[in-house]
Design goal:
Blueprint lengths: L1 E6 L3 H4 L1 H11 L4 E8 L17 E4 L2 E4 L9 H23 L4 E8 L3 H12 L3 E5 L5 H7 L2 H8 L4 E4 L5
Parallel strand pairs: 1-2, 1-6, 2-5, 6-7
Antiparallel strand pairs: 3-4
Helix pairs in contact: 4-6
């Protein structure tokens, strides 16, 4: 059996491991597939110095201008670095939270997290998607959207949701 566990990098999403451990207690043979979907628009190359440096300083009657920051990492290198760092963080989480489970790590760089989660669940033939929700309501929900809600509407697979009040 396979459980897909999407995480978003927040402390809130880590609360789902209490539920995951309960599932493992019922079905120890569950494969746990940890996934983090990263928005590619949020990944940027590193620069050779901070943007916080003043662009110019006046010395006497002359202005001394600091050089503009220079990108020292291409877009592709930045994406590769982000994948490596995210994968390493997920490996640490798996070792800490579900040390005795068969764990697999997935990192995807796409803008639509709900669609990516649904597609990976289908590709893996996951038996269940297990995730925490932030529990936003009202205007915050409308502005932030809900990956969990979109999954519940579009996925043909069961979605086990743990709300923020669980514990």
């Amino acid at each position: 059996m396979k459980a897909l566990v999407p995480l978003d990098g927040s402390e809130n999403s880590l609360r789902i491991f209490e539920t995951v451990r309960k599932l493992l207690g019922l079905q120890p043979e569950f494969e746990i597939h940890l996934l983090e979907v990263r928005d590619p628009r949020a990944v940027h190359g590193r620069q050779d110095h901070s943007l916080s440096e003043p662009p110019s300083v006046t010395v006497g009657k002359s202005a001394v201008t600091a050089p503009l920051p220079r990108i020292v990492e291409s877009r592709g290198e930045a994406m590769d670095r982000d994948t490596i760092e995210t994968r390493a963080r997920l490996v640490e989480i798996a070792a800490r939270e579900v040390p005795h489970a068969a764990s697999f790590i997935h990192v995807l760089h796409v803008s639509n997290a709900a669609e990516a989660i649904k597609d990976l669940a289908d590709e893996l033939d996951a038996d269940v998607i297990v995730m925490a929700t932030h529990g936003r309501t009202g205007l915050r929900h409308l502005l932030a959207g809900s990956v969990t809600e979109a999954l519940m509407r579009t996925s043909a697979r069961p979605v086990l949701v743990q709300g923020p009040a669980a514990g």
